[in-house]
Structures are given as structure tokens and as C-alpha cells.
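dumping these here so i dont lose them again. two proteins, back to back, each one seq then C-alpha cells. dont judge the mess
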Amino acid sequence: MIRKNIVIAPCGNKTPVFKDYWLSGGHERNFDLCLLFYHADIDEPDLYAEADYFFHLKNFKFKMIHELLTVIKPEWLGQYEYFYFIDDDIAIDTLSINKMFDTARALDLWIAQASLTSDSHCSWPILMHNPDCYLRFMGQVEVMAPLFNRFALEKCMPSFIVNESSWGLDSVWSKMLDYPTNKLAVIDAIQMKHLNPVGGGELYKKINEDPHESWDAVVEEFGATKNSFTEHGRFLIVDRKRNRVLRMFNKMSEKIDKTKQAYLDYGLSYRIKNRLGIKI
């Protein structure tokens, strides 16, 4: 089966999260997995045998992704439709990854991310899981686990090589896409757990720059707004447990509509015409 989705993720000697979570449970997946190894030496090569693709690029996350998609496998931009760039300290299972791709495709999202579990290490509280929502449209999604469609990726990929830390890239993506209000989303129906403290991942040990200065520099270079973590709209979950008042109004509206329809279909006018034998 030819898959149209791919997970592309950095990995190192101390980050087998892909095996423990992304490929766990033996569930069928709707995505290929490509791992980009950043350490100089590979301690356990057999550990990565389940990945569909493996490249030893020894660089930073988005710089490796840029090299992969512009030099090594540029044809993937035509082969795949959705690209999920997950950090190697993100716990999310196979079925949730499948659902991420399905939801992004169904709603024609340009960039999306899963919501963060309540026990995640978190930089932006607005991205924490909201149990009342299916998803929320945002002005910006976070750099650690964005899912791109092909259109957004081709627009945003030139920014991938501007710094090592990747700080500020997510600010720039919103600018490069002209600040859409219904194409960037955090999907609350899906949750992921950020396992390490912010700045505590393996790759951060290799960074030769101040991430805060990098963030300021890239925002200035692209003329972007530094923080666009603003909600533009939401899909609410309406049931007996959540948003009950709205559910009550919806049910009342349904009853009124059914009463109106019954009158129009079977009211006085219908009965008179039926008695007179007038074809309706």
C-alpha cells in the first residue's frame, strides 16, 4: 500500500520514543516513518530497524528535514501529502498519529498539532488539552510537533535553515502563510505528552546559540509577529457531559424544526388537497 503520510523525526542514542510509543501496540498505521539520526555514532543500529527510512545526518531537526526534502529525497514533496515533524521526546501512540493525519486531511488544515496532556512540560498553556473542544483554530502552532500539508510545507521550508534551535520558526510560519484564521489548529481530540522540560532534549546540548536571541533574530528577519498564540475559533464537543446548555438549545431547536416540518408536510393545506384529490 502506498501511503500519503509520513512522520519525519530526529532521533539519537537515548531517544527510543518512536519504538515505545509511535509504533507501539501493533496497530496498522497510515504513515511511513523516517528517522534522522543526529549523534555522531550509532550505538544500537538494530533499534531502528522498524523505521521505513533512516538517515544519519548529524544535524539539527529542521536543518536535517530541509536537507532531506531538498537534497536527498526531493521527490517526497510530490509523493506525500502530509508531513508530521515530531520531536524525539513526544509520546503519542500509533492510533493518535493516524487520527492526526485523518483530521488534518478531512478539515484541510495547513499546519496542526495535538493538544498537550495535563502532565506535559509546556511552554504555552493555551496548547494544553481542552476537554470541551474537538479542535481550536490558532494563530500559531508550536515548533516541536507540527503536522504540515504539502502546500504549507513548500511555503514554509525556506525558514527551516535559519537557526539551530528552531525557536521562532513557528512565529515565522504564520507570517509566511499570511496569518490564516482557519488553517492552523490544535486538535484537542488528540493528546500528546511532552516528556522532557523545555530545552531538555538531546539536541539542545548541541546548540551553539542563544535560543532567545535566535527567536528575536528570525522574527525580525521575516517581519513576523513574535507571539501569535491566539484562538480564532473552535469546534465544541456537545453532549450530555460537555456544553450541556448548548446541547439543550440544540435539542429545542431540533424539536421546533420538526414541528414546523410536520405542519408543512401534514398540516391543514395538505389535508384539504388530499380530500379534494389534488395531486401534491
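---- next one ----
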Amino acid sequence: PTPISDIHDNLEAWDGEIKTIRGVMTIGVNVIQTGRTNAYIQDTSGKGLNLYDPEAYPELERGVDVTVVGEVDLYYTTIEVKNFEYKINATGQELPEPAEITVEQANSDEWEGTLIKVIGTVSSIDTYSNNTVVTITDGASELEVVFWNSTGIDIAALEVEKMASFIGVGGQYSSKYQLTVGYQDDFSVITGLVEDNKNLPEVFELRPAYPNPFNARATISWSLPEAADLTVDVINLTGRVVETLHQGYQEAGVYNHTWNADGFASGIYVVRMRAADRVFHQKLVLLK
């Protein structure tokens, strides 16, 4: 199968081509739209995309491992596979871990069709005929969180100025970046300082990269229980820094960075994180 990350990277060249992909359904059929297939799949490359067909395939529910053969298409800003055939490999599979990013980081094409988790403060709630759009902010940036009526999600607990956590797929509509939530358990309101602290990491940590081994791109994640000056480098086996992923001050939280290794040779690399007088290392294997 073709990694979905490769489809993202080669979209212009592959538009209209037939590709085979395999992944786990993150938003199933008849969730964000009924009567047709408008759903999302994600694979081990760490990227996802939309599956679209005028016919509804309700067996493609969340957690299904499926192989899909279909036509790559860019529908406005949505990366999709359409006119597809599929084979279910397994059901009830674990979902990919959502990339935990900030509101500012979510404002990027990088997360199109991909499962992400964002925490922000509600600044407005706008109800339309088919959906409700909740705008969240982190003080500097805004993001639209979309709840389609067809999901049946109860958002009565959401109020302006409340902080909440949202899991969904990234996307864009009418020049605005969005996060689409598909399920009731994928959002929660954070009430009070105690619960807020529960959402912060407890330790400094360089989290497992994914995928690893990888081809061209890997997502590097780290967590900070408190604000700190931080440096995250990629070094080769001779100890030379080949790329710096981050250098500077960061608030407490969980961060993700996608390393684009297109210009690097296959081999073993090491991610080194230095924060608060601590040093962490993690091996990465680049296979091309």
C-alpha cells in the first residue's frame, strides 16, 4: 500500500491516479454525513485523508482496519480517495494516537484529514442549519471546531470563555482551518485549575516517534510539565547536528514536530532533547 503521507506530499502529481492504501477508520460512515460515505482513514505514516463515495458503506465504522483502492482527488482543500473498492481486514482496532498540538499549530495544511487533539478557550458558538461551529483560541490564534448535527453530539456543556479539549480531524473550509469532531467522547470541558492541571504532562519526556522506522517524515513529540528553555536536535551517528527542530522557550504542554527527512540519506539518526538540565535521546531509523 501507498503511505498516506506520500499522497499528501505528491498530491499534484498523483491527482486522478489509482492508489492502494491501508489504515484504520478514524471517523466512520454516517457520522458527519448520512446517506453517503464521507469518512476518514489514517495509516502508520501518521497522516489521514477522506474517503468519499455517493453510496454509504456503514460497515466502514470507526476502528475498522481496511484496504482501499481508489482515485486520489483534491476536492477544494480536502484530500480524498474516491470511486474506491475496499476490503475489511479487521474490526475493533485501536485508533492512531491523535497529534497533540496547539491552536496555532492546527492552522496548517499539515493536518488535513489527520487526527489531532487541541485544547483552547471557547470564544464563540455559532449554530447553523446543519452544524454548530465553536471557535476556540489560545490567545493568539483561532480555530473552528465543527460539530455536524448528524453526529448527535451534545455540546450543551460548552460555553464562551470555558476551556475544552477536542479530538477530531484537521481540515480547511473557506480559508479557515477547522477541526471536525465525530464522537461524544472526543471532547470534554475543562473546569477549574485542578482539572486543567490534569491535562498537563507530569514529567519531561521525549515521546516515541511515529512511524519508526519511517520513510521521509516522522512526527517527533515531547512533553513539558512546566515552562522551560528547550532544544530538540536531530544528530547523526558521528554526533553532528543535522537539523534543529526547536530551540527556545516553551510553555508547559505536549508538542509535535514533523521532521521532513527528504534530503537525508537512509540510516540511523538520534533525536536529542535538552530541557531543564535534562537530556533525552531517541533512535530514529530512516528507510528509503
